[in-house]
Design a protein that fits this description.
The structure is a homodimer of 456-residue chains. By secondary structure, chain A is of the alpha/beta class. Helix content of chain A is 42%, strand content 16%. Chain A is globular, with a radius of gyration of 21 Å.
Amino acid sequence: MNQKEIPYKIYLEESEMPKSWYNVRADMKEKPEPLLNPGTHKPVTLAELSGIFCEELAKQELNDTDVYIEIPEEIRKFYKMYRPSPLVRAYCLEEKLQTPAKIYYKFEGNNTSGSHKLNSAIAQAYYAKQQGLKGVTTETGAGQWGTALSMACSYFDLDCKVYMVKVSYEQKPFRREVMRTYGASVTPSPSDTTDVGRQILKEHPGTTGSLGCAISEAVEAAVSTEGYRYVLGSVLNQVLLHQSVIGLETKAALDKYGIEPDVIIGCAGGGSNLGGLISPFMGEKLRGEKDYQFIAVEPASCPSLTRGKFAYDFCDTGRVCPLAKMYTLGSGFIPSANHAGGLRYHGMSGVLSKLYDDGLMEARSVEQTAVFEAATQFARVEGILPAPESSHAIRVAIDEALKCKETGEEKTIVFGLTGTGYFDMVAYEKFNNGEMSDYIPTDEDLQPGFDSLPKM
Amino acid sequence: MNQKEIPYKIYLEESEMPKSWYNVRADMKEKPEPLLNPGTHKPVTLAELSGIFCEELAKQELNDTDVYIEIPEEIRKFYKMYRPSPLVRAYCLEEKLQTPAKIYYKFEGNNTSGSHKLNSAIAQAYYAKQQGLKGVTTETGAGQWGTALSMACSYFDLDCKVYMVKVSYEQKPFRREVMRTYGASVTPSPSDTTDVGRQILKEHPGTTGSLGCAISEAVEAAVSTEGYRYVLGSVLNQVLLHQSVIGLETKAALDKYGIEPDVIIGCAGGGSNLGGLISPFMGEKLRGEKDYQFIAVEPASCPSLTRGKFAYDFCDTGRVCPLAKMYTLGSGFIPSANHAGGLRYHGMSGVLSKLYDDGLMEARSVEQTAVFEAATQFARVEGILPAPESSHAIRVAIDEALKCKETGEEKTIVFGLTGTGYFDMVAYEKFNNGEMSDYIPTDEDLQPGFDSLPKM
C-alpha cells in the first residue's frame, strides 16, 4: 500500500484485537535466571509464589514455555472499553523536524489511569476475582499504577489497598482523589499499619518514603490479611506478558498497512511498557525472521541498564520479595531529589535485563531538561501533553529522526507514548520557569546502592 | 445491521469525517434575534463586529443563510490529530443499570484540552492567522477553553493572552501550567492591565473575579492592541457552527450502523457542546424529516433556561460586548459559591434559546450531589472520569435509562460526554468526603441578576 494513504491514527477493528498475550520468554533460547527465595537463595516454587500472588498469576510468572496465553473473555471485554489504542503517524512532528524519517507512536494514554498500566491491572484484578479473593494490595509512586489498579478493582468489585509513597501522597492529592473516586483506600507510606512501616518510621522518622519501602508494606499487608494478595505493576514477567497487548496491537496495525519499522523505542523504568511494546518484534528477532533496532531509554539520574550491575538483587527495601537477576543500581539506591521525570525504580525487568545482556537491545540514558524540551516540542505539534516518563522515548525518537535528517535515511521509527502528563504539572512548571537542572550521578553516588546488593 | 454487531467504540474513517460545518440557523424558519450594538441598540454590522472578531468569524457570526460552510483544509488536518472522536456504546453502564435502553455517548475528552473546546479554538486561531493577526485574547474560567485556545495558537504560532478568573488561577495552577506549556500568557482577572480591570479592582478590591469580568478585560485587551482580536469559546453562533462537527460525526457514526436515536442529551452552560451535538439532528426536525427529543441539562444553581428570562442582555460584566437575545439570569448573576460543577455562565446561546423558546427542545436542571453521584457511577463502570460539566448529561441519561427500566421501553439514548475531570479533583474530593451540598436559588436570589437586565 502507498504510504501516502496512511491515516493520522490507525485503529484496529475490535475483531482484530489480540485474543492471546505473547510470552517472549518462550522464544528465548537462553531463559532469564529464575527468581530466588530471599531466605534460601533457591528458585522459588509455585507454592511459595502463590502465597504472595494469585495462583494463576504465579503460574504466569513461572511460565517460560507457552508462546501464547489466552486473554480471558472478561478481560477482553474490559480492553474494549479503552482499546485498541491508536497507532499514530506523527505527521506534524515529522513536518516540524523536517525529517525524512517516518515516525509512529503507540498512544496508551487515552484512559483515566492515563497510562498503559491498566492493561495489566485489569488482568491482575480479574485473576484475583476468579480466585475468590476479597482484595489486593499494591504500592504506587507517582500514582499511575495505583490509579489503574483502583479502576480495575472497582470494575470487579474488589477491595483495593494502595500504599502510596508519602511524598507523592502529599504532593499529588489529585491522583489520590482519583483512586478514592474508584473506591480504593490510599495510605501514605511508610505507615504505622505494617511492621516494616513502623520499623522504617522508627529508624527514619522524617522519611518521605520510597517505592521499595511501599512495596514491602503492600506485601506485608497482603500476606498478613486473609483473602488478599499482592499485585505489582511492572518488572514482573506476568506484567510484561499482559503488556504484550501493546506490541501485538502495534504489530497488527503496522502489518495492516505494510509498514516495516526499523527502530523501536520505549522508556524503561521497571520495563513494563518497553517489554510489552517490543516483545512480538523481539520474538521475530529471536526466531531469526526479522531484525529490528530496539532502544530502551532511561533517565541519566536512574541509569539501571546503562550503569547498573547485572546481578541478583532485592526488589524491595524490606527484602521480603523474591530475588531477581536483573540490571540494578542496588535496592539501596535512591535517585537525586531533583529528578522529576519518573522511572525511579532501582532495577529492571529480568527479561529485558537478559535481552540487553545478550546484545539484543540497546539502552540510552537522557538528562531531564532535554526530556522536557522534547515533551514540550511534542505537545505543541502533536497536541498531546506527554507524561515525563513517556517523554524519555520522545527525546530519543526525535534524536533518531534528526539523525535521519542529516543522513537522508528514511527510517521508520516507532515509539511508545505510554501516557499523559496531566498530573505532572509541578514538573512542567519547574521546566517552564527555567528551574529544572540536570544531574548525572558520579560512580561514588552510585556506590551506596551497589553496597546493598545481597552477598551470595 | 444487527445491533449485536455494534462495537464498543464506533470510529469513523478519516475519509468519513465532515468536510463542512452545518449551520442550523439556515434551517430555522424563525431566525434568532440579531445581536445589538450596546450603545445604539441597533443590529450590529459586519464592520462593527470585525473590530472585535476576525473578519471571517464575524461573517460566520452573521451568516444565517448558508446551510454548510466548508472546513478549511488546515483545520481538517488539525482535526485529524484528535478526531474523529469515538461514539461509545455504554454496554457496561447499561448492564449496571439493568436497563433495556441503549446508551451511546460521544466522547470529546481524548485530547489535551480535555474537552470539545478545541473544535472551535483551532478554527478561530486559523482565521486569525489567515487574517495576518499577531495574536488573540480570551477569558477562561475553569481553564478548558483557555487550554484549548493555547494549543490552537501554539500550532499556528500565534500569540495567546488568556484572562483567567482569579479564583481559578489560584486554585487551578495545573491548568495554568498546561497553558504556559503551550506558550500562552495567563493573567489573573481582574488585573491592572486593563481599564475595566482597574475599575473593578477599585470598586471591589477583594474580588475573586468572574467570567463576565474576564470577558470585558479580554475584549479591551484585543481592541486596544494592534494586530489582536478577541475570541470566545461558547455562546456565539460561530462557536456552535464549529461545534457542529460533534453532531455531524455522531450522526455519521449512527447512520453507519443504522441506529436511530430517540433522545439526545447534552449539558448546557453557554451551549457550545449541546448546540454542536444536536444541530444536524435539529436540522432534520426543523425540516420535518424526523423527530427527536432533545434535553438540555443545566445546574440547579445556574438555571438560565429553566428559570431565566428570554430577553436582550449583556454578555459581559463590563457591558462592552454586543447585546444578545437569550435566556439569561442577568449579567449581574453569580452562582452560589458552593457550586462546583461548572456551567456557570449567566446566559445561553441565542440559537439554543430560540429553539427552546419555540418548544423544539426541553431543559432540565439538576443538583450537584446527584451529578457527582452519576459521575462516580459512570467512572466506575465506563472507565472514564468525567468532567463535572459533562456529568450533568450523564445524570439525565441515567435517569432516562432508569425510566426505560420501569416502562420496558428500549429507547436509544445519545448523550455528549464533553470532557474529562482530571483537573477537577478538588470538586471530586469534596464529594468523596461527603462535604458537597446542594443549593437551589430562591426567586429572591435570582432577582439581582434580573435587575441588571438592560432597560430597552
